[in-house]
Specification:
heterodimer; A: alpha+beta; FAD/NAD(P)-binding domain; D-Amino Acid Oxidase, Chain A, domain 2; 3 domains; 5-stranded antiparallel beta sheet; 21% strand; globular; B: FAD/NAD(P)-binding domain; 7-stranded mixed beta sheet; 5-stranded parallel beta sheet; 26 strands; 33% strand
Amino acid sequence: MMTSQSGLFDVAVIGGGVVGCAVARRFALDGARVLLLERASDILSGASKANSALLHTGFDAPPGSLELACMQAGYREYCEIRERMNLPLLETGAMVVAWSEADLARLDSIEAQARANGVDDVRLMEPAEVLAREPHLATSLRGALLVPGEHVIDPWSAPLAYLKQAVAHGAEVLCNAEVLSGRLDAGLWTLETPRGAVRARIVINCAGLFGDEVETRLLGRSDFIIMPRKGQFVVFDKAASALLTTILLPVPNERTKGVVLARTIFGNVLVGPTAEEQLDRTRADVRQEALRDLVAKAVAMVPGLADMPVTAIYAGLRPATEKKEYRVSAKPELRWITIGGIRSTGLTAALGIARHAASLHAGFDDAGFRPVNDPVWPHMPNLAEHGRRDWQADGHGEIVCHCELVTRREIEQALEGPLAAGDVGGLKRRTRAGMGRCQGFYCQARIAALTEGKFAEPLAVEKADD
Amino acid sequence: MTEPFETDVAIVGGGPAGIAAALALRHRGVARVTVLERESEAGGVPRHCGHPPFGLREFGRILSGPAYAARLRLEAVRAGVEIRTRTSVTALGPSGRLALTTPDGTAALAAGRVILATGVREMPRSARLITGDRPVGVLSTGTLQHAIYIERQKPFRRPLIVGTELVSLSAVLTCWKAGIRPVAVVEAASRPTARWPMALFPRLLGIPMHYGAELVDIRGRSRVEAATLRLADGTTRDVDCDGILLTGRFVPESALVRLSHLDVDMGSGGPSIDQFGRCSDPAYFAAGNLLRPVETAGWSFREGKRIGGIVADDLDGRLAPAERTIQIARGEGLKLAVPQRIALPSAEPSLGWIQLRAATGGTGVLSIRDGSAILWEKRLSILPERRILVPLAALLKAGERTDTVEIRFTSDKAG
Ligand SMILES: Cc1cc2nc3c(=O)[nH]c(=O)nc-3n(C[C@H](O)[C@H](O)[C@H](O)COP(=O)(O)OP(=O)(O)OC[C@H]3O[C@@H](n4cnc5c(N)ncnc54)[C@H](O)[C@@H]3O)c2cc1C
Ligand SMILES: Cc1cc2nc3c(=O)[nH]c(=O)nc-3n(C[C@H](O)[C@H](O)[C@H](O)COP(=O)(O)OP(=O)(O)OC[C@H]3O[C@@H](n4cnc5c(N)ncnc54)[C@H](O)[C@@H]3O)c2cc1C
């Protein structure tokens, strides 16, 4: 990932989360020379590393909010472009399930809000109908609201595809390039990073969990404070996917938002997230008690899960702020756009947020690049369980990760090019390697050998001599 | 897509159990015996156990793991077994239809009988729900051995070792030989799970041992930096380390079975079988450590050989289909019971016994019951994770009368 650092960029995007990737794509397609700066050794290392991977309709978003508008625009654009990029969509639909009398009483207002938000295809269901659709659910349920448009996507291939398309249109990406400071001089930003200084006409802050810190570092102050909110998850064995098709959403109540039970695009079933406020912006640790509690909640909804082994555990941090709404603003005089506090819907909304950012930029006095006429559409390797994968094709070399059936060819490809994986997490996100039920028992030593010399934090610390 | 092919018996997994089954089938004159092995060579787990003793009973000499694996391959070639490496079985279909992938693409295989012998692995950090960050450097013994003995790389320099099973001893040895210096060994129980050498050996090397202690936190941004232990006296202690080695807690590698039409037993974690090793679809048999955690290579080899012989009988039409079955219910105090059912009429050869593991150790009474009637009982002292064998004959007598028997271990203390 080298850049013509001496060059001058139209736009510097700070942060390679899903939002930064979508913004980089939008401005590159609009004809700008884009540079994306990421502090970690790979993109998607912040909030975007770990989420529920649901493509939301916005049925329960605050009416009239920017969040709702961006989610719906993002949803539409994802569905428009996904086939050209070979991005998957698992059309599951969702049910907001009522487990108590109190829950049941709330379904009507949730339905009304959905309609007010323009999500018209929602429908109340009686317990018998719910059980006919999902026969493995606990029979104690009281009813549900069906939201047919909620789906599951691949949370990592999508942003990677956005950035790939940006790169195909001249964008450059610098990892290990934390923006430490900067100054605006005669309408030109100079940003200091450990990999040198870079210059750009406009800065777009998409720094997620560090959004306020970047504002303070470069502008001297921030209009918002990031208050990280951790969400832990448990992922069950693939055999569990026989027990559930539809996403199960909780009825939110005053005390808790409750947890989701859903299929993953990789053929598993996940339960989570928790919602835990914390000060640390990087530590997404898992805690046994919380994980046990999630398993218990999952089993209460689908009793058959009691017999299913746990495949994975993980946690993500939401870049929440003191307000619910996104913290998006433009400061034309400072040649600066802030996209902050994209708390818990950013995967869905990213493409919509990027369009919104472009519209904010239209208000800058130099606005107007020449849009790309005939965009290049990168074709992503399919990682979705329901689609055709590389192991099903000839000449894949060998299976390296047996649980997830990841081929040597897939691993080699993920280690190539301007968006090569920069660490083992990045390799997992690009291939699924090591994500399966054995968690690397069979393949990690082999992957260590295949990735020797490639990663910031290598899997092997040194050679073993005889 | 390569051409579909056929074979008399397909064996999934080329470890000690799979190869032994293949040898037995060839010795009985079965024409086409095909071992499907997903790794680049057959041999199974012993391939990366760079230490003796392997092979004493099978081959009359003491071999290291890799030498034993090489011997298995040699015997297989000599006996005319077809071994297909880099061939992963991806799905088990009814009546012995297998889906495969190879470097040349996917393929289908129709087998007269299938023997599943995919072995065991250790339980990863995730399934143990261990608290903490998720940095690089948390792994199991199998991964360590693979790294050291096959890839010749060290995954860490100063790991904390969790567990005191027999395999934990291999882990300590593997570390020591490679110049890796474990900072401590922790064991949740008050005594080592394995027999005497485990208690002594690390201490001889100067590695601190903590019994009654638990790993309660892992910290590290990109690589493991420290771990927190809760010690037997309730205090916590931070330990500097650059890795966590989770040893033992074996689980059958039953992925294929779980995703197939075959019945899985939640106690053993493997396929549910009868005393002939026959699965719920009679075209499928199973052998080796896939059946239960965990036995030695030698045990798995002998089991494979026996099941191979039974499958040869079956192909000759000498294994009667089950007319009736007795289900074996796993009662209190027991973690697993294999086989899970007895097919009647019974015959020999069969596995010959019911294999049990207790949930916790102690002295007490092991009994077989039909409702409230006690069909068989025996006083004994047992340890957790140690094998207990009950002769099949003890159960067959009961089978004349009932469809279900319960086996339970009533500990004196609990009583
Ligand atoms: C538990 C959980 C569940 C979720 N579920 C869903 C869901 O189902 N559907 C959905 O749509 N959304 C979901 N989300 C929300 C979604 O994941 C977030 O909204 C989204 O990831 C935010 O992306 P971002 O790009 O704003 O932030 P980030 O992903 O944090 O990206 C910011 C990037 O900026 C980098 N950076 C920070 N400071 C600097 C600097 N100074 N210089 C350079 N780079 C810097 C960081 O390293 C990071 O990579 C969920 C989130 C969580 C945590
Ligand atoms: C880390 C570890 C250390 C051990 N150390 C010892 C020891 O020191 N001494 C000892 O006696 N025992 C040891 N054991 C126990 C070990 O399980 C037995 O020694 C023996 O290997 C069991 O033989 P098996 O044939 O049942 O399984 P394995 O030896 O595990 O063989 C199973 C084979 O099946 C293949 N396979 C699995 N799934 C598929 C598929 N879908 N398609 C194709 N092929 C597949 C695997 O690649 C493997 O080669 C250890 C086990 C482990 C996990």
